[in-house]
Amino acid sequence: MKCYQRAQQIMHERLSTEEVYPAGFFIRDRRLFLKLKMEDFTPLCSPSTLSKIETGKLAPSASLLEAIYKKLTLSPRKKPPVKGWLFPIRQMIYHQDLSAHDLNEAHFELHYQFSLLKFSYYLLQGNTSYAKREMPFLEKMLPYFSVEELQFYFLFMGYYYFLLHDGQLSKGYYDLSYELAIKHHWDDPLLLLMLARYYSLSRHSLKAVQLAYEANALFLKDYAMGYALDCELLLCQEYTFTHLFSTASPLLEKLKAKLTLKDPYRQVSTLFNRYGEYYTALKDYPNAEIMYIQGLKTSSYKVETLTSLMDLYYQSQQTTKLKQLLQQLTHFPFAVPLPDILKWKFYHYLMNRPLSDSFRIFLQGEAIPFAKKRHDRQAFELYSYQLHHIYEKQHKYKSALYILKTLNEKMDFLNVE
């Protein structure tokens, strides 16, 4: 949270001041890259003096500057960062062309720019641990970022926390990025799509649809077909959730026509999942099951589809099939995301020990706090209603009423402005 508050402060300072690049800017960029401490420069100057030079509060003498540059093997003639260097990076990201091959530091004059590129690349691969390695360097260079760099950085910080299931920080950074984009009239469809995903998770369908629709139009304009497909699949999900079946159906058919011919973005299994959700909402459980199973045939270990199939069996009261599926997944060979692990645990308890204290402790200590932290409204309601049911069956009416009160109140994480 402290990093987020500092980011807010830096953004407001950057918006109220001109972009300047004193000699200290290049010194800090190089020093941090070489992992040198301020104390390493003690023969030349004190740490406090170097700090003032780096922050532009002190202009060094020509001889001191030359000595520092020599220690850092820096060229004495340094130009400010080139404007618009992020544009080709964004284009590669939109077209899903950014690959490990593009991570070449020789193309960048400044180390923090290369670090920012790696940060975005690792997150697009879903690798939060590698992305985290770049964060200390970027945090220390943050006061020198241009407004465009800040907007890009905040976008991926939002995505970083989204992947870590921290809804509050994710939304906070997305909002900072969105504020900068609006203020400077920049179109950033990836930001709109990521915000749409957040609002979809927190079940604010109107905002999710609006943002996904805007993002889709921008991606199509830029011929970024992979992300445009993501937008349309998200729209299908939201139309189904809000029971706009007459809108969802033609969009599903349109996507089916696209993806049956070829599937370059590996989204056929996701499409079957959207069909499954559609039929489930219509209470056409046999067709929903067919769609989920078909999705599993195209991608045998699609965790999202397996979880959706559990939801289907639970809603349609097919407990025998739910138990069989849970049993089959006991030795599931691949890594499962934490939200799905908790959902699978939930159904395991529900089928085996529905009124046990261990189930209550799981709901109170793991499932409900995680759903709240993630801003996952659907999971929060599912777990909370089950906890209420346990309290009722155990005649703990005071606790049961408290759960209902919590559910009925407009809690902060559900009441997104």
Description:
With about 425 residues, the chain is an all-alpha fold. The two termini are about 20 Å apart. The model has no long low-confidence stretch (mean pLDDT about 90). Among the domains are: about 1-70, 434 Repressor (Amino-terminal Domain), CATH 1.10.260; about 265-335, Serine Threonine Protein Phosphatase 5, Tetratricopeptide repeat (Alpha Horseshoe); about 340-415, no CATH class. Helix content is about 70%, strand content about 0%. This is HTH cro/C1-type domain-containing protein. It comes from Turicibacter faecis.
Spell out the blueprint of helices and strands:
Elements: H1 2-16, H2 23-33, H3 47-54, H4 62-71, H5 86-94, H6 111-124, H7 128-141, H8 147-163, H9 167-183, H10 189-201, H11 205-221, H12 225-241, H13 245-261, H14 268-281, H15 285-298, H16 303-315, H17 319-328, H18 338-352, H19 357-374, H20 377-393, H21 397-408
Domain HTH cro/C1-type: 46-79
Protein name: HTH cro/C1-type domain-containing protein
**Average pLDDT, all residues:** 90
Instruction: Report the sheet with the most strands, covering strand number, pairing sense and barrel closure.
Output: none
Kindly state the percentage of residues in helix: over 70%
Proportion of strand residues? under 5%
Radius of gyration: 25 Å
Count of individual beta strands: 0
Uncertain parts: none
* Number of distinct helices: 21
Listing every helix as H and every strand as E from the N terminus to the C terminus, the arrangement reads HHHHHHHHHHHHHHHHHHHHH
Gap between N and C termini:
19 Å
Structural class by secondary-structure content: mainly alpha
